């Protein structure tokens, strides 16, 4: 039986290496009965998407930039 | 009719990169990102400058203006990865990150039996994707990154933002694979908790 501490460690390591069959099974069994760790696991996936978005420069919405697009007058109105 | 050989998309990109206001905003954000990764003002400035030059040179091959920012950031990330691979800057990571210390930070979240402290048990995050569109969210995210021990944050960023494999990070930093996993666990757990406390859960009242 995994502790929550061990379970979160496996949730994290799953993002860096393939877990062994045994690790996957014990983690899955733990997540079935533990909402805290289930949320943790989902949030790890969210955190990965957040970091990837940050690395793409998506951390500041180009508010003013896209609006300043009309310089070309391509609307032709 | 004197058609220029370069496609219209290239002209647009070059125009976007030479628009002072747009370039200034892009430059500022790129520099912020590069400084975070490299922790060296001069190196960061060089990397950003080179990335912008490469973007201008490569403009002819670049089609579509919408993702200009994404594209320029991908050039910048490659420059940063090169610098980190070439440099010896990571040797300091191993000494700063003591394994005992890292385990201690994690232990505080759990009771002696290894289960969550009631206050630390993760709460539900509502619509995390919507937060990504919010500028305030990114300010909180950066503050949370800043709140981590510097070496922990750097390992996390190398993994999740620059796409390094864990094995390369360990080798470059001269730390064991186990220590690497401990550091990443620490980083993710710390960021998770910080985002939850300062954004996702306090966010209930934020909307009004």
Automatic annotation (TrEMBL), chain A:
Residue ranges of domain Putative zinc-finger in the record: 4-37
Region (Disordered): 58-77
Pfam families with a match to the protein in the record: zf-HC2
Protein name per UniProt: Zf-HC2 domain-containing protein
Organism: Pseudothauera rhizosphaerae
From TrEMBL, chain B:
Record-linked Gene3D superfamilies: 1.10.1740.10, Winged helix-like DNA-binding domain superfamily/Winged helix DNA-binding domain
Domain RNA polymerase sigma factor 70 region 4 type residues, every copy: 141-188
One Gene Ontology biological process: DNA-templated transcription initiation
InterPro entries assigned: RNA_pol_sigma-24-rel, RNA_pol_sigma-70-like, RNA_pol_sigma-70_dom, RNA_pol_sigma70_r2, RNA_pol_sigma70_r4_t2, RNA_pol_sigma_r2, RNA_pol_sigma_r3/r4-like, WH-like_DNA-bd_sf
Pfam families: Sigma70_r2, Sigma70_r4_2
Statement: the UniProt record of this protein carries the keyword Cytoplasm: no
Database matches in SUPFAM superfamilies: Sigma2 domain of RNA polymerase sigma factors, Sigma3 and sigma4 domains of RNA polymerase sigma factors
A GO MF term: DNA binding
Keyword terms of this UniProt record: DNA-binding, Sigma factor, Transcription, Transcription regulation
Domain RNA polymerase sigma-70 region: 25-89
Similarity section: Belongs to the sigma-70 factor family. ECF subfamily.
PANTHER family xref list: RNA POLYMERASE ECF-TYPE SIGMA FACTO, RNA POLYMERASE SIGMA FACTOR HI_1459-RELATED
Protein name, per record: Sigma-70 family RNA polymerase sigma factor
Native species: Pseudothauera rhizosphaerae
Native organism taxonomy: Bacteria, Pseudomonadati, Pseudomonadota, Betaproteobacteria, Rhodocyclales
